[in-house]
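Quick one:
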Amino acid sequence: MTAFSRTAMLAVQLLVPVCFLVATSGVSQAGDVKAGRAKAMMCQACHGLDGLSKTPDAPNIAGQIEPYLVTQLQEFKSGLRKNDAMSVVAPSLSDKDIDDLAAYFAAIEISVGKLPGQ
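Output:
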């Protein structure tokens, strides 16, 4: 593969997710934050009720944008995205569950304390 081909491939890999986020940023999710909090009890062992990881291989999901969370949950549910823990949990989620969970975790406000080097 030539240097140009690698650069072009990298550009495509970086631009596709950005284009997806821009295209879906105006999409209104119908998630219910309160219902999502109740459903989040099944997520707390790995992600915590606060959306902050409790295990080394689980990501922090607090404050993530709602369309991103919806997409990730849908991909775990469909099997397009693979993870041992999520392959047990995601298949049982309805579309409404996914919307509610995404709304709840997206609604968690996060703040940054002191940045390293400051």
